[in-house]
Design goal:
It is a single chain. With 200 residues, the chain is an alpha+beta fold. It has one domain (14-199): Aminopeptidase (3-Layer(aba) Sandwich), CATH 3.40.630.30. Helix content is 30%, strand content 30%. The chain contains six helices and nine strands; from the N terminus they run E-H-H-H-H-E-E-E-H-E-H-E-E-E-E. The protein has a seven-stranded mixed β-sheet, sandwiched between helices. Helix 1 runs antiparallel to helix 3 (43-59) and helix 3 (43-59) runs antiparallel to helix 4 (61-67).
Length: 200
């Protein structure tokens, strides 16, 4: 979900990992937004979710992978937005952007774009697809994602809250599996794992 409008201007922001000192500002950012309030997100729940990400990151391993990463956009050390994403959050194979939030005063300055591109860069290191959902009624966010190359691939009715449809979006660099090798003349093919030629 996002309410970040488009803008060609690029702010002077630093994208960095979430810190313990960022939790309160980031939690208030989403809990104070009417869009997130519609989904029942309270300040307490937002704090707890972000702290759980930090705790999982300290544990490392599978816990950190399951919790995902949170990157913060800061101007002068002050958080003005953040993105929460997972490298394997969709179908256990593909990246998923869970939350994208930008402070009202920072919207229209490219902060959301910078955060999303940061998440995409991390996800694309591990796989060719990024997925996210956006509220069907949120036309500005849907236009924002469309400009950044996301395509609608489905809709989920009453998925999070009754009466709201979530639009499933995808940005891709290709399928999970590489194309199968063509069989050259003479009946030889290149084995996908060894790279050696073999007859079929």
């Amino acid at each position: 979900m996002s309410s970040e409008p488009a803008s060609a201007r690029q702010p002077s922001v630093r994208i960095r990992p979430l810190r313990a000192g960022d939790v309160e500002a980031c939690a208030r950012l989403v809990a104070g937004d009417p869009l997130w309030q519609r989904y029942g997100l309270t300040l307490r729940r937002a704090r707890r979710a972000l702290r759980q990400v930090l705790a999982a990151r300290r544990r490392g391993g599978a816990a950190a992978l399951a919790a995902g990463d949170v990157a913060v956009a800061a101007v002068g050390g002050v958080p003005v937005g953040f993105v929460w994403f997972r490298r394997e959050g969709t179908f256990h194979h593909s990246g998923y952007v869970r939350w994208l939030a930008v402070a009202p005063a920072a919207r229209g300055r490219g902060v959301g774009t910078a955060l999303l591109r940061h998440a995409e860069a991390r996800i694309f290191r591990h796989g060719p697809n990024v997925f996210l959902t956006v509220s069907a009624f949120n036309r500005r966010a849907r236009a924002f994602y469309r400009r950044l190359g996301y395509v609608r691939v489905g809709a989920l009715t009453d998925y999070v809250v009754p009466g709201v449809t979530e639009v499933l979006l995808r940005k891709t660099r290709g399928p999970l599996q590489p194309p199968r090798p063509r069989r050259p003349a003479g009946g030889l093919a290149v084995h996908r794992m060894t790279g050696r030629e073999c007859t079929r």
